[in-house]
Specification:
The protein is mainly alpha-helical. 72% of the residues lie in helices and 0% in strands. The mean pLDDT is 92.
């Protein structure tokens, strides 16, 4: 069993989550239970599912949790577009966060391709 903390993709996903928490701190108060909550949940879901997948017993399970993590990253991708269009995020902050997100998505896609049932998983 591998420690999820040693996975670079988990580390990058965690950094992205911290960036989302920081950025959403300044959202309008009426978004506290709306977009702020949704973005925080979808971003933390990426790292959470990577961690949970590492705790599972098979590569098939691990891959399934990586797919869920990727789905959560796609939710965050849309939410970043929405926050830019609503002018909740400055364009430069949006670009920085989107770059982090794309990096995580590429790493997830690569890891999903590498995780095969005959290989050892986390």
């Amino acid at each position: 069993m591998k420690d999820f903390r040693s996975l670079l993709v988990w580390q990058r996903a965690h950094e992205l989550t911290l960036a989302v928490y920081k950025a959403t701190k300044n959202f309008p108060g009426d978004e506290r239970f709306g977009l702020t909550n949704q973005m925080r949940r979808s971003s933390s879901s990426v790292a959470t599912n990577i961690a949970e997948g590492c705790g599972r017993g098979s590569n098939q399970d691990f891959n399934r949790f990586l797919q869920i993590a990727f789905g959560s990253s796609s939710e965050l991708d849309y939410q970043l577009i929405l926050t830019l269009n609503l002018a909740y995020l400055a364009p430069d902050v949006h670009l920085e966060m989107r770059a982090k997100l794309i990096e995580v998505q590429k790493m997830l896609a690569s890891l999903m391709r590498k995780v095969q049932p005959e290989m050892l998983g986390c």
